[in-house]
Structures are given as structure tokens and as C-alpha cells.
């Protein structure tokens, strides 16, 4: 299909789906080129902040316990809960690129910068070209759905001529 035709189909499908959702009916189709997002949980960082908060609560008896101490303890607890429930790590797989959350921004990686994608039991590793660090997504630490992620990444690798290694076989 030409790009103009794809845009027209997408626009009409969006309009019909919006009308159907107003009437309470399921949408007719979804955009196949839409990026799929796999979300996990940042357990280690959240646990670190909560443990600092608990440590501050346990050492409260040795200090005078002024109000700033309570604010600090509460702030560590809130940051830990924020990291666990709100600021979740993710991998967004689109048609020609991958993206993830960095420290302060979204990091986007085009298909030509990927050396290979390795799927092992319980984890997915994306090796980058050059001296860039690899991207690791696993089931135990970050609670990602690795099986679904590997299926989508395999499709991505086939479309963009990237090596995909399956170590589960």
C-alpha cells in the first residue's frame, strides 16, 4: 500500500473506533504499525529507597526526632513507592526502532545500531554496535513478560535484518 493510502485507512479506522468506543462497542481494528510497549517494575531501586526509609525509622530512637527527620523518612518512602508504581521501566518496540527509559529521557535505538538480539530463558539481551552498553531485560529483577517481548523482537529482527539468537532451544 502507498503511504497516502495507509494514512487514509489509519485515519478512517481511528474515526470509526472512536465512534464505536462512544457507543460501547469493541474497536474494529488496531494499527499494526503502532509501537508495542512492554512494562516492567523497578524492584531493586524501589526496595533500596524503602529500606533506607525503614532504616531511618529504626534509628529514630537514637536521635531527637525533629520534624525534618520525619520529612526525610517519609520522602524516601514516597520516592520508593513512586519508583515502583509510577516510574516503570519499559521497552517500546516500533517498526524500525527500539526505545527505553533512560535516567532523564527516552533513549531511542534505530535498527542499524543493533548488533544482535539474544533470547535466553528468562531474559532478553540487546547487543549494540560499538562500545555502547547492552540492554538487558529479565523476568526476575524487572518483572518483564520476556516471552511476549521475545516474540515481538523476533518479528522486529526479521523486518530489519538484525541477528536474532534463540538460546531456549
Q: What are its keywords?
A:
169 residues; alpha+beta; 4-stranded antiparallel beta sheet; 4-stranded mixed beta sheet; 8 strands; Methyltransferase
Task: Describe the overall structure.
It comes from Paenibacillus aceris. The protein has 169 residues and is α+β, with helices and mostly antiparallel strands. It is built from five helices and eight strands; from the N terminus they run αβααββββββααβ. The chain has a four-stranded antiparallel β-sheet, covered by helices on one side. α2 packs antiparallel against α3. The chain is extended and about 70 Å long. The two termini are 37 Å apart. The relative contact order is 0.12.
Quick recap of the structure?
Helix content is 44%, strand content 23%.
List the helices and strands and how they pair.
Blueprint: H1 3-23, E1 36-39, H2 43-58, H3 67-85, E2 90-93, E3 97-101, E4 106-110, E5 114-120, E6 123-128, E7 135-138, H4 139-142, H5 146-160, E8 163-166
Parallel strand pairs: 5-8
Antiparallel strand pairs: 1-2, 2-3, 3-4, 5-6, 6-7
Amino acid at each position: 500500500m502507498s503511504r497516502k493510502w495507509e494514512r487514509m485507512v489509519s485515519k478512517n479506522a481511528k474515526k470509526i473506533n472512536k465512534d464505536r468506543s462512544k457507543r460501547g462497542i469493541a474497536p474494529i481494528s488496531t494499527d499494526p504499525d503502532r509501537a508495542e510497549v512492554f512494562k516492567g517494575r523497578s524492584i531493586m531501586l524501589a526496595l533500596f529507597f524503602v529500606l533506607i526509609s525503614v532504616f531511618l525509622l529504626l534509628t529514630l530512637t537514637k536521635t531527637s526526632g525533629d520534624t525534618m527527620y520525619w520529612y526525610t523518612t517519609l520522602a524516601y518512602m514516597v520516592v520508593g513507592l513512586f519508583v515502583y508504581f509510577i516510574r516503570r521501566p519499559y521497552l517500546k518496540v516500533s517498526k524500525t526502532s527500539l526505545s527505553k527509559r533512560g535516567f532523564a529521557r527516552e533513549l531511542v535505538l534505530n535498527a542499524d545500531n543493533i548488533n544482535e538480539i539474544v533470547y535466553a530463558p528468562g531474559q532478553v539481551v540487546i547487543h549494540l554496535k560499538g562500545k555502547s552498553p547492552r540492554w538487558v531485560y529479565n523476568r526476575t529483577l524487572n518483572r518483564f513478560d520476556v516471552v511476549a517481548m521475545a516474540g515481538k523482537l523476533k518479528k522486529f529482527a526479521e523486518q530489519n535484518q538484525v541477528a536474532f539468537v534463540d538460546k531456549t532451544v
